[in-house]
Amino acid sequence: METPDPVTIVIGCFEDLIARGLRSLLTEDDNIELTVADVELEALDAVLTEHAPRVAIINFGSLRTPVEVNRLHLAHPETRLLVLANRPTPSECNQMLAFGATACVSKETEARDILNAIHLASRGLHVLPRTTTTAAPETLGPELLTPREADVLEHLQAGRSNAEIALALSVSVETIRTHRRNIYRKLGVRTRRELASLTQS
Asked: Model pTM?
């Protein structure tokens, strides 16, 4: 029987203990081949271009904005992005998936479940962490959009005016302006033109 090609992996930059744990864990699986580890976010695009791994593991805490996940996804659609975060909330995970990640899991996930997540993500299957009933602490990473801001973002990307969005969402124009300012700040853009370029880059 023919053995499948190993899942090639690139690992972003993580805290020392997490980085060592990931490297050690991946060497235990004969079906995984660690290509490059400890890649700074700024260098990740070039490394993905050079090595074209099946999976890239990204540190949520290193992201300045969730749009960085979207840019990597658009530039490297064949590489599945697995985001590791400190106790991510369901909305944070859903937003990572919406921006192009294939998986979003907690750094507290058990080792075997991380390996399972890698293998599932490598086949394009979405992976989310199990939900917990404990209150989520403050997360280190980008400030994510609220569900309402995500709704407004869709309308903005469709080129609708503030008045048209206000009418569609049954809120005031001033409310839309507030949401728009928050969206721009969180995504690191200043104008509608910059916002539109995010999905085109």
From this structure: 0.69
